[in-house]
């Protein structure tokens, strides 16, 4: 019976060993299950956070698209206002050119009228024109012929002086208008 008792002891030892292994496996399984629950909870939390972030991102994209549309509209309005200001500036410059042309015509008419009148003393910037004194020391005491010659002599520099001033003024105004229009042929010069 010693052999049978030894076998029994050996079988009991193996059972104890198997129980210990079984208990160890159960503890390990419980730990893994607990760890799986924690990981599943973390995964669900991460999914929720990712979905919330994606929803927020989609909202931001929609907002950016809306703002982009507003910016494009604002830029289009600004460009339209700039275009209108350029057109207004061109119109204003054309009005100035027309007024200058009218002033030139009026000046030419005035100068033609002065040729017919008795010459008088006049000083213009850069020109000094005074009546020519007659032999008696008084202005205008000449014959008809000498008065006509004196008028030609005195009015010619006066006319040239005024024309030079008008050219400078027209050149200045034309350069402003041409820089706005390019070489536009619509300007009245």
TrEMBL record:
Q: Coiled-coil regions in this chain?
A: 1-88
Q: Per the record, which residues fall in region Disordered?
A: 114-156
UniProt entry keywords in alphabetical sequence: Coiled coil
Protein's recorded name: Protein BRANCHLESS TRICHOME
Regions of biased composition (Low complexity) lie at: 138-148
Task: Please indicate if the UniProt record lists Coiled coil as a keyword.
Answer: yes
Where is there biased composition of kind Basic and acidic residues?
114-123
Record carries keyword Plastid = no
- Source organism of the structure: Ananas comosus var. bracteatus
Q: Which InterPro entries match?
A: BLT-like (IPR043424)
Report the domain of life of the source organism: Eukaryota
């Amino acid at each position: 019976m010693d052999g049978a008792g030894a076998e029994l002891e050996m079988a009991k030892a193996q059972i104890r060993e198997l129980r210990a292994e079984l208990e160890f496996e159960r503890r390990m399984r419980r730990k893994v299950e607990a760890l799986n629950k924690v990981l599943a909870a973390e995964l669900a939390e991460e999914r929720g956070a990712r979905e919330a972030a994606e929803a927020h991102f989609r909202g931001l994209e929609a907002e950016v698209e809306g703002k982009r549309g507003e910016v494009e509209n604002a830029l289009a309005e600004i460009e339209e206002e700039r275009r209108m200001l350029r057109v207004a500036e061109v119109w204003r410059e054309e009005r100035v050119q027309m007024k200058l042309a009218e002033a030139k015509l009026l000046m030419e008419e005035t100068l033609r009228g002065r040729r017919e009148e008795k010459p008088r003393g006049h000083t213009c910037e850069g020109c000094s024109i005074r009546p020519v004194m007659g032999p008696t020391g008084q202005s205008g005491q000449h014959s008809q012929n000498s008065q006509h010659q004196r008028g030609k002599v005195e009015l010619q520099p006066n006319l040239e002086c005024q024309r030079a001033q008008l050219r400078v003024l027209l050149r200045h105004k034309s350069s402003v208008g041409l820089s706005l229009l390019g070489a536009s042929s619509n300007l009245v010069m």
